[in-house]
Amino acid sequence: MKILVLSTGGTIGSAAKDGVMSPDKNAMALLVLLYESSFQDVAEFDCESVSDILSENVTEPFYEKLINRLLAVDAEKYDGVIVLHGTDTLAYTSSLAAMVCRSLPIPVSFVGANYPLKHPKSNAFINFRAAVEYLKAGGKGFFVPYENSDGKTYIHLATRLTEADFLHDDFHSLGDAVLAEFKDGKIIFSNDSRLPSQEELSKPLSGITDGEFELPGRVVLLKSYPGLDYSELHIKHDNVCAVLNITYHTGTASCADGDFGLPEFCDKCHKNGIDVYLAGLKKTDDIYETSKCIYEHGAEPIYSVSVPAAVSKLRAAYNSSLENIDTLISDDIYYETLPQEEK
Amino acid sequence: MKILVLSTGGTIGSAAKDGVMSPDKNAMALLVLLYESSFQDVAEFDCESVSDILSENVTEPFYEKLINRLLAVDAEKYDGVIVLHGTDTLAYTSSLAAMVCRSLPIPVSFVGANYPLKHPKSNAFINFRAAVEYLKAGGKGFFVPYENSDGKTYIHLATRLTEADFLHDDFHSLGDAVLAEFKDGKIIFSNDSRLPSQEELSKPLSGITDGEFELPGRVVLLKSYPGLDYSELHIKHDNVCAVLNITYHTGTASCADGDFGLPEFCDKCHKNGIDVYLAGLKKTDDIYETSKCIYEHGAEPIYSVSVPAAVSKLRAAYNSSLENIDTLISDDIYYETLPQEEK
Fold first, then answer.
1. How far is B187 from chain A (nearest CA, A)?
2. What does R_g of chain B's alpha carbons equal in angstroms?
């Protein structure tokens, strides 16, 4: 089994010095060396550095670089790819890469860590090992292995991951639907009906980009809170395609008068050719009068998708050179929508 | 026992018609009537309408109205107050009211619901009943009772509540530290050491405002995400006092160049007399080079406080007419900081 390891920086690619953590060029080699010395003859690794930043510093050019490297991977040569990445923006990167590179015929893993490898509490090694074991077990698709603070290691679908919580730094999948668990050195596939099957994941989907992938069309994310004054947002009309408003938990946002309401902001955006979407909500039988009003002003709900995946969905859709924007938004790009549970 | 019920609108004060939910003037009376007919001779209720809006439409004037009504409550006449409020912004309102009205010598509850009272799945009645039972059991402080989708009903401290999740519409306290559980018709106090004791909660704290409370000093909330262009935020210098940046889970934000980094934005804010704070983070031994850089540019972390309570903390501090801003920010205003767990 041959695996391509792409380092991008992050905690897993960092070292601590005098209480401050920063990227360290030897981190990837050390991790792979440690793995090879612990488990002989199971896998051969090719290592390559794509970037060298902490993941909180990720902006669009990073995505273009990583995604174009992934699209150029020789699928004949490798059985899988492991991308080493920081945890802060892991859910954004893993979901965008999965959507844009969905035509790649080999599995791709995104591996982060809570602490640098040498820290006694680091989960870098077990996360890396879980990625290799998932590949060895024949696991498919774009995935994220991560050991939480309770010692449980789950394999998440790359487009279902939510952002980690700040108290425990744990990762969860939307609705806790995971692809597999890594337990006692073994991968246990979940067969959760809310996820695509391994059979489905093994089939590459049609590409959404030809040639180099570029991200000129930007997406702006904002979160509803009481007193939000939308007039303080001066969206740049020349390159912003879409605004994504994180709603309150029932799917609403403010319809207060004027600049304190989303409806007027929607109207302004539309006049400037910018589309408005809603995330952080699910489809319900009854809706609030506020939701009704917001929909009437043209805001489009993206139901049952995590916030990072909703951002990535818009980025992928508006920058696709092959597929229709509306189709990519109304349908799943890469299994990002959690099927609604029966009532 | 005499209880003042203040209605503000919300789902608990709404009714559904043709699939659309909107505020209904009879909802509070119906709820109290239903309670009185179910449990005779336990409590006497005075009902009053303070507002009539869905809680997603809450802006500063609503807070001023509700808080001034609470500050004017006759504590000799009542044993407690129950505020009926929508769930969407419940964590923002309950935390702000607790902080600004912390000198009130009687307990105050904030009660919301997942559906209007008449809906078969509504938890309006059990939430209301849990509030009354907590008062009857001698419970103190500012609190929020809520039945989650698993059927468990917890009593949350008003400044520890986090926003509900959109999949299940469940409420949690920061670190799941709750004041009590309401189970089988009984209040079971938790005695969680991460919370103030009932003894502490029974003592009113010193007031932070004299006369009418006003909120002229605004707070702007924004969330870090990859590609955030800070130059798209045009903060109004005349009335915004503070910007609160929700960090990534490790406490970092982007330090990318220019407008894509928080440091330059901090500098701009400070030049205009606006302070910058960070929320959604905890104190750690080692910090990232990005955090170090952000701190050096004057952003102040608010550790281990929920995002809604951090917003309220800034609103209370910058609009206090009696207390020093720095003291209100560095110390707890109303027990909002979750004590750090031992390592």
1. 27
2. 20
